[in-house]
Amino acid sequence: MKSYGEYNDLNLKLIIVLERCYQTITKKDRHSMQEDTNLTVPQFSVLEILYHKGDLKVGDIIEKTLSSIGNINVVVNNLERQGLVKKEKCSLDKRVTYVKITSDGRKIMDRVFPKHVDNISKITEMLSEDEKKILIELLKKWGKS
Fold first, then answer.
1. pLDDT tens digit string along 71-109?
2. Is the Cβ–Cβ distance between 33 and 39 less than 8 Å?
3. pLDDT value, residue 17
4. Which of 14, 77, 90, 118 could bridge across to 96 with cysteines, CB 3.0–4.6 Å?
5. Considering the entire predicted model, what is its pTM?
6. What is the 3-class SS of 70-95, one letter each residue?
7. H/E element, 115
8. Who contacts 108 (Cβ-Cβ below 8 Å, separation ≥6)?
């Protein structure tokens, strides 16, 4: 393997390990999200945010899911067609649209989210509480840089 110097090789390895870890977690987590809902990962993410945060503007959903306006519009429109969310224009500013979870969307999340939590616990069980806290702090530090 070609070396780019010890410092750069370590940085490259770190990114590769992080990416592989993310892919492994995502693959394992996808099952609990899609098990009996037929939701895509982005659809589950939008429902989860609305389930826990309440009604949100489309722009806030984009920020929280790290998605693009085009992608979120497709996801929200598909969820709306399924009756899991509804969109409402702001009464004070018609340019602003709020997305709200419906009772059907809430029922799905009431049923599926506890399974998701259990799955996340299984995915992370090999780390101690202290390791999890340290990793959270390190990733936050990195994310803020």
1. 899 999 999 999 999 999 988 888 889 999 999 999 999
2. yes
3. 95
4. 90
5. 0.82
6. HHHHHHHHHHHHCCCEEEEECCCCCC
7. helix 103-124
8. 37, 39, 47, 84
